[in-house]
Amino acid sequence: NFRPSFFTCKTVLLAASDKAYKIIDISQGWKEFISEDNLYIKHIPGNHYSILRDPNVSYLAALLTCENQII
């Protein structure tokens, strides 16, 4: 039973904006391992699959290209 330790670096969570279910925890469970001060959530248009297809993948690529500007 692997249990990751608490992560203290700034972290960006890239999350699909279209969900098939209602999310109660916006951090999707990550706040258990990363402090809220270090967790940045960026929503990408589309769902789990369509974020990797045009036109949404262009938005994702732009975020990844400018990753230092996200946080």
Strand fraction: 15-25%
**Count of individual helical segments:** 2
Average per-residue pLDDT, rounded, comes to 86
Query: Oligomeric status of the shown chains?
Result: single chain
Can you give a write-up of this model?
It contains two helices and two strands. The protein has 71 residues and is α+β, with helices and mostly antiparallel strands. Strands 1-2 form a two-stranded parallel ribbon. The longest helix is centred in the C-terminal third of the chain and has 10 residues, at 56-65. It is globular, with a radius of gyration of 13 Å. The relative contact order is 0.22. The mean pLDDT is 86.
Question: Which helices and strands occur, and which strands form pairs?
Answer:
Layout: E1 11-16, E2 39-44, H1 56-65, H2 67-70
Parallel strand pairs: 1-2
Structure in a nutshell:
With 71 residues, the protein is of the alpha+beta class.
List keywords for this structure.
single chain, 71 residues, alpha+beta, two-stranded parallel sheet, 2 helices, globular
